[in-house]
Amino acid sequence: MSELVSTAQPQLSKHRIEALVDGIFAVAMTLLVIELRIPEQAHHAGEAGLRGALLHLLPVMISWVISFFVLANFWIANHRLYSFVRHVDQPLLWLTMLGLSGAALLPFASAVNNEFASLTGQLVYSGVMVLLGVATLLQARYIYRHPELCGHQLTPASYAAVLARGLGLLLIALSAIPLSYVAPGMSNLVFLLMLGLRPFGAWIERRASRSGHSAA
Questions:
Q1: pLDDT tens profile 30-58
Q2: Contact 63, 188 (CB under 8 A)
Q3: Where are the alpha helices (DSSP H) in 12-155?
Q4: What is the mean pLDDT of residues 111-138?
Q5: What pLDDT does residue 72 have?
Q6: What dihedral do alpha carbons 203, 205, 211, 212 form, nearest 10°?
Q7: Contact call for residues 163 and 140 (beta carbons, < 8 A)
Q8: Of 27, 6, 7, 23, whose CA–CA distance to 15 is shortest?
Q9: Do residues 14 and 88 make contact, with C-beta atoms less than 8 angstroms apart?
């Protein structure tokens, strides 16, 4: 008797893509620190020279903090989204790769923005932020619309929170572009508004949950 061959699509494990995500984010976070270099002349300038060099590095340090925080935020967002996922399919893999392309580009974009405190430098930096944000929103949308991939479904309230945080980041990134024209070198400070995105998302989730219970 001939063996029956299943025609069902094989399920792809999520663990391989999670390992790749962890690796790329770890490398990108590490590469960010390369920009923090003490100028060679400061080594021979004594205590005053070192203080001056560190003061000169302050804008780069602020950029490092922001970029590291952005990558950490997106890694956490990916981790949260994949906690709902049981297995993956090709579209979800490619949407995740789209996000990883932004994570891998961020050290380069940060270096350009540090070297050229200009509208073009900010366009590059904010453009990568937008890429990361759009990729996360697309992943969330795909996971929400494909519950068959999930171990437990992404709830409407949790999805609303992801949308709120993602759209908030897009608005912040886009607002930095005109600000760089008005105040070159200071526009990155607008990214500190990201500190409010997580509590804002939590508030949206609680509000959506209460609305869902009331409708039920």
A1: 998 887 776 666 555 666 666 766 777 77
A2: yes
A3: 15-32, 46-56, 58-82, 90-115, 119-145
A4: 89
A5: 92
A6: -170
A7: yes
A8: 23
A9: yes
